[in-house]
């Protein structure tokens, strides 16, 4: 299965302190995925956090009952597009981690459909990341990762795993799908960390 690449409008370069180097601004929301879009029913969806000796799980109803936050943020894709001022609603990773006893430095996000990506815990905590289930006031569409996706907007958007199913906390960093296929281990758009050696 190859890259699905739809939704690009006209490109325009902008000189802005909010635009990372090598990016262009789009008003569209391009769909970029590897493989088919999983169709995950909210009746079957669950989110879990796995740590040594501990697993926490939430059903869709339990997840929606958690305190939610409204987030306005810019997003930046490794394929050079940026979208300014996007609006999301979701649950902060800080909230989900409140009862987790382990203190480990890394996480692997894993998704329905088998996708994985690695993220340091310091990039998921302190108000930096969420599990988002609404975009622009509407339920998150499947093509954009619904019913819920990870949202880590300060990193390239491949780190914001679509169709997210859980986080596995780890002592060592394990590269995820794109990281083992040539993408940068970390993915900071301001340092253009797109690929190995960037």
UniProtKB/TrEMBL annotation:
It holds the Pfam family Oxidored_molyb. InterPro entries: OxRdtase_Mopterin-bd_dom, OxRdtase_Mopterin-bd_sf. Residues 35-178 form the Oxidoreductase molybdopterin-binding domain. SUPFAM superfamilies: Oxidoreductase molybdopterin-binding domain. Residues 1-22 are annotated as: Disordered. This is Molybdopterin-dependent oxidoreductase.
